[in-house]
Records
---
Amino acid sequence: MGVSIFFIVFNLFIFAFLLHPLAAHKASVEYCNKKANYAVKVNGVDIDPYPITRGKEAKFNISATTEKSISKGKLVIDVTYFFFHVYEETDILCTKTACPVSGDFVLSHKQSLPGYTPPGSYTLQMKLLGEDNEELTCITFGFSIGFIPAVAAG
């Protein structure tokens, strides 16, 4: 009898976990060059949902601060999967936050991943480059793509 109660509770836990909405996650951020004195300091990265679900949109909010006034720039994003380069994107800074930037600000990036994206651990590197391609900051952080793809509504 004890085994059957355990089996029922275990299955209910798994079922609740699979149906439970995924929560945001604060990623652990590292600077690309730990000795650099970047003009933009990154306070954290929130990823929602987490783990990222294939076939659904994920949102990355990068909290940062700077004493410099930045009116132009670009974000260069590179993603690796087990050391293999799998994705690259370059965006205009002012499409990801209100410009000019100074003080505290948030960079927001949304991305939808195809249903065939392999599940597992990925690493994202983001560089913020100023007007003259000056490296204002460079960070890396890991994220996961879940094993269960989103179910298409039909």
---
Amino acid sequence: MRPVPNSLHDEVASRLREQIFAGTLPPGSFLDEAALCERLEISRTPLREALKVLVAEGLLRHEPRRGCFVAEVTESDLDEIFPVIALLEGRAAHEATRKAVAADIAALELLHERLQQCAADGLVTDYYEANYAIHEAFITLADNRWLAQVIGDLRKILRLARHKSLHATGRMQQSLAEHLAVFAALKARDCDAAEEAMRTHLLRQRDALRDVARNQQSRLTP
């Protein structure tokens, strides 16, 4: 059998990854290989190679004799991940502040205007996308491939929780204020303040997710 081109299983992995992030394949759901092959019009070989990629990324879990399931992020996982990613993204904000030029700041200004408009309109999904774009912009500006690689791996896991934190009471406006604080520090060229503001933003996001989980639990408890 000829080897399967990397581009094919990479494409399949990308399509499945986006379905996981979009919630089309929700946490805990079983991936039926036969159905996926039929829907994606591919053979088992590239599908299984794609599944291996997503298992390695932590987006899927493989159970012997049962198959693959979309990973579920636990509260314990979040407690362990957020302090780490807060440190890393804080450092990215520090380096981005040091390296940003006028054109970069202008581009960030547009992204923050979009974020403010989404918050004003109460558009959770759009706000989430704008928020994600801003974080990506800071990571890109930091221009540190090692930092970007580790943050990227962790952010894939956190996207399983998606924008649940934005459903916490008042969280969208709090998140907006935190983002504006980071941006203000960048414009002031205060690297340390930008780093601290970004770390605070990430840790408060964890607090918001914890509040959402508590509220959900209280509704389920008789």
---
Amino acid sequence: MARLVPAVPQAFPDQPITATAWNSFVYAAGFHMRAPSALLTQTISQSVPTSTSTRIAFDSAVRDTEGGHDPVNNNTRYTVKTPGTYLVSASAGMFLAGSAGGEESVAIIANEAVIWAIILFGRDLTFSRMGGCATAEIPLQTGDYVETQLWQDSGQTESNGVGAWMGLHWVGL
């Protein structure tokens, strides 16, 4: 169940503070000190076929204050319980399987629409792993969901290894 997003009282001008006013202030302060947030991680390597968008399966949560992630069913998603604007960051990469060239991208997806992506151009064999991070502020409603997507075009299936993560933090209405 979604928490109510309270307004923070600005002041109590020249009046005695009533129990009702004090309780609303305490709830508002508590909500804003513990705003909805999640940090999802991946501990199992995942295959990323060439020229195919692949959603990352997050099988673990370091933090999930709202219970918006299920590590078994739809584990690529974080489903919003409290509406508002969220700061969403995602980080992922892939091990190079031996072919030079190609591109990779890491994207943040909200309700099946690409919100932000970072594209890594011109891979070479100097590095054994390439990675990237994407960050965006996204207005979301209750029931909306956010995912992280990888894409690559090396000509062969590659592994993203482990260590991908996606973080979300409620920043306001």
